[in-house]
């Protein structure tokens, strides 16, 4: 039985008319008659005396009417309570994120969050991965957005999404004329790499070894922005997460090539302290981040264990 049917019946009882109840609910008079008949069939009792004008409720109909009014009123109170609770959620959500979490993506998340909860604020700081962990551990950030998330006795790591890795190259590079590239074609190429102390450097090196590929590393940086700049001026190529290249692809300052059958993904995760727990505003923002409908193109939500849901190779922290 739907609440809408109860509302229609209550309007019939209140107006003593099928036609007026139809107008009140923006349906046809025939639809109102069918709804009342279905309720009578379900109750196995006649609820409306149709032989009189205006219509009258039977004794059973009056009892049903009083009960239906109570149910509808209780639902309205419940609905208002939930909506008011959401509207009244206040506070500040402090987020520490690695540089390569797209500023545009985070801007969209923040806009949606503050539209739903106008009394809550979100502040995002972009930091080196080590500083993200430090900020969360010391309590100056509620949530941390990192790649290759590490769980510990003090931290919970929640899988967020996987970003597809692609080959970034300057538009003038010979490989840029292709739509995809096999890893073997990277052998001997000048390569712009991540610093050796970063997990992503170790995982990319492992992937290249598995593909029996040796590249000529000519520069190393600790963040994606510097790598992109070096690649754009033709210093070399690099394997980077596709979502971090959108702006450059649109501006045609960089080309992005899929890795064909040897696809791999960078896992992103959300970290927060085990104790004390997250405040209500931070929990709501965490829920928004993990909503599967908000993942950007070329990214995908992970399963509960944080691993990709198909057979593609996935970079993972050791």
Task: Describe this entry's structure for a reader.
- The chain has 318 residues and is an alpha/beta fold.
- It folds into 3 domains: 85 residues, Arc Repressor Mutant, subunit A (Orthogonal Bundle); 116 residues, Periplasmic binding protein-like II (D-Maltodextrin-Binding Protein, domain 2); 103 residues, 3-Layer(aba) Sandwich (D-Maltodextrin-Binding Protein, domain 2), CATH 3.40.190.
- 40% of the residues lie in helices and 23% in strands.
- It has 10 helices and 13 strands.
- The strands form 3 sheets. Strands 3, 4, 5, 6, 9, 10, 11, 12 and 13 form a 9-stranded mixed sheet that branches.
- The two termini are 54 Å apart.
- The C terminus is likely disordered.
Any idea what the shape is?
A: elongated
Number of spatially distinct domains: 3
Please name the fourth-level CATH homologous superfamily of the largest domain: Periplasmic binding protein-like II
Q: Count all strands and give the number.
A: 13
End-to-end CA span:
54 Å
Q: How much is the radius of gyration in Å?
A: 29 Å
Assign the CATH topology of the largest domain: D-Maltodextrin-Binding Protein, domain 2
Relative helix content: 40-55%
Main pleated-sheet profile = 9 strands, mixed
Rounded mean pLDDT is 88
- Low-pLDDT regions: 303-318
């Amino acid at each position: 039985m739907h609440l809408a049917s109860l509302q229609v019946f209550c309007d019939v009882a209140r107006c003593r008319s099928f036609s007026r109840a139809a107008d009140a609910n923006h349906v046809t008079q025939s639809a109102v008659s069918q709804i009342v008949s279905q309720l009578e069939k379900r109750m196995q009792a006649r609820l409306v005396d149709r032989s009189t004008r205006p219509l009258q409720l039977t004794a059973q109909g009056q009892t049903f009417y009083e009960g239906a009014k109570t149910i509808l009123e209780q639902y309205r109170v419940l609905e208002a309570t939930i909506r008011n609770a959401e509207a009244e959620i206040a506070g500040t959500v402090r987020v520490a994120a690695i540089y390569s979490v797209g500023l545009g993506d985070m801007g969209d998340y923040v806009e949606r969050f503050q539209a739903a909860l106008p009394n809550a604020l979100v502040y995002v700081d972009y930091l080196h991965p080590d500083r993200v962990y430090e900020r969360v551990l010391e309590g100056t950030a509620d949530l941390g957005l990192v790649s290759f998330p590490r769980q510990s006795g003090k931290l919970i790591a929640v899988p967020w999404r996987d970003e597809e890795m692609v080959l970034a190259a300057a538009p003038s590079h010979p490989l840029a004329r292709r739509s995809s590239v096999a890893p073997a074609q990277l052998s001997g190429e000048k390569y712009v790499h991540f610093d050796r102390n970063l997990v992503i450097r170790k995982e990319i090196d492992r992937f290249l070894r598995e593909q029996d590929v040796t590249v000529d590393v000519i520069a190393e940086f600790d963040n994606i922005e510097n790598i992109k700049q070096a690649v754009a001026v033709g210093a070399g190529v690099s394997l980077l997460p596709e979502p971090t290249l959108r702006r450059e692809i649109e501006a045609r300052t960089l080309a992005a090539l899929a890795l064909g059958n040897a696809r791999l993904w960078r896992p992103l995760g959300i970290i927060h302290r085990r104790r004390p727990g997250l405040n209500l505003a931070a929990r709501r923002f965490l829920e928004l981040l993990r909503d599967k409908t908000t993942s950007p193109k070329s990214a995908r939500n992970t399963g509960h264990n944080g691993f990709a849901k198909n057979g593609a190779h996935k970079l993972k922290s050791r």
